[in-house]
Design a protein that fits this description.
Elements lengths: L5 E10 L9 E7 L1 E6 L5 E4 L3 E4 L5 E15 L9
Antiparallel strand pairs: 1-6, 2-5, 2-6, 3-4, 3-6
């Protein structure tokens, strides 16, 4: 069992590739606005101070029309583009 957690700062601009992870992924919008598109669900729009957790195994991609920053809380070995 891995109890270590990583906090990463990500810059989004444009569309990230579709991917999924084997664990939950938390997005906290730091500044700007972006949406998280989810396969089979309505997109979630985040503004500064808002957060959303993508459930493990859910195909998703962040999309930002203009530059935005987010804190990601995930396992240290989580691959950027998922599984």
């Amino acid at each position: 069992m891995n109890d270590t957690t990583a906090v990463r700062l990500a810059r989004f601009e444009g569309a990230f590739p579709w991917h999924h992870h084997d664990e939950d992924e938390l997005f906290l919008c730091w500044d700007g606005t972006f949406r998280i598109e989810l396969e089979g669900r309505d997109p979630v729009v985040l503004k500064a101070g808002e957060l959303f957790v993508v459930p493990r195994g859910t195909r998703h991609r962040p999309v930002a029309e203009e530059s935005a920053h987010a804190l990601l809380i995930e396992h240290p070995d989580t691959q950027q583009y998922g599984s």
